[in-house]
Amino acid sequence: MASKQVLALLLFSAVSLLPFAMGADIVVGDGNGWMPDFNYTDWAATKSFAVGDNLVFVYSGGDHNVIPVGGVEFKACNGTGAARVFTSGRDVIPLKTTGRKWYLCGIADHCQRGQKLVINVLPATSPAPALPPTSSSTPIMKRTFQAAMVIAVAIAMMN
């Protein structure tokens, strides 16, 4: 019986630390989403990006896209020949490595009209200020569900 209580305590402790171990979902442009005629340079200057975070691009599917590019292509607003083009309207791009990352929209003149983003991704161990959730409660709901499931398993094991 005591070992079950110790296990339950360990599971509870692990769940309590879960929010600190997971990266943040960062909605590009916050409530504005991914669109032309918006200053993503100013927007990015107010954010901190780290390995483990996810960029979430929200836009009308078919009207825009997201193309990860290199610095030269970014400056030229050139997404042709890119290895990947995201088109879902809710694209989640995990930040897996440190350094500069460049993204643009390849539709019409959208990139020339400012629909492009450059960020600098920091190591996961770098402290980043906690930001309040913006336009999506999904990460909170996911973590709450995970916590509830672990607690339910712990309670079931105690019986």
Automatic annotation (TrEMBL):
It is found in: Membrane. GO terms for molecular function: electron transfer activity; metal ion binding. Its main location: membrane. Residues 24-123 form the Phytocyanin domain. It comes from the Eukaryota. One of its GO terms (biological process) is response to symbiotic fungus. GO terms for cellular component: plasma membrane. The keyword Metal-binding applies. PANTHER family: BLUE COPPER PROTEIN (PTHR33021), PHYTOCYANIN DOMAIN-CONTAINING PROTEIN (PTHR33021:SF408). Keywords: Copper, Disulfide bond, Electron transport, Glycoprotein, Membrane, Metal-binding, Signal, Transmembrane, Transmembrane helix, Transport. The keyword Electron transport applies. This is Phytocyanin domain-containing protein. Residues 1-23 form the signal peptide. It is a single-pass type I membrane protein. It holds the Pfam family Cu_bind_like.
